Amino acid sequence: MLDDIAAVRAAELSGVVLGAALPDSSLDLAMLERLSAACGPLRRQLHRVFDLVPDPLQALEGAVSLGFERILTSGQTPRAFDGAQILRLLRERAAGRIDIMAGGGIRPETLSALFRQSGIRSFHASCRRRSSVQDERLLLFGFAAENVVTSAEEIMRLDHAIRLALH
Length: 167
Known about the structure:
Layout: H1 2-10, E1 15-18, H2 29-39, E2 43-46, H3 56-65, E3 70-73, H4 84-94, E4 99-103, H5 108-118, E5 122-124, E6 128-130, H6 136-140, E7 148-150, H7 152-166
Parallel strand pairs: 1-2, 2-3, 3-4, 4-5
Antiparallel strand pairs: 6-7
Helix pairs in contact: 4-5, 5-7
């Protein structure tokens, strides 16, 4: 990770996404502090390692203390829509000190309800669709992997849903 940070800095990119956990799934604050120091002026976001921590409010405070600008989380559930109440709690507790970004199963169809329930205004989504395979039987028999691709149409649908929800 230190080599990756050095490469990002050398490429003059704006930021990195980091995460590190201890065996009990709590944030490894010592490692995150070391990585943060290596970042220098890079912007830092804490990734979904956050979704596995035993105490999300304590982890939130740890991320704030280390100067992260954002936490990417699904509210400790596989899909952000199902974690809306935790997302709301985190957003409220963060009180503007750090951005809470919802990610995990973000879909245009559920974005408005997620926004209403959580108040979250930052979203991360893959906007992917299952791609077709030559013969569906290949999937059934395990001879081919199910492929997904980023979809421009899904991106436009999500953008529209965000605009409707936030305005």
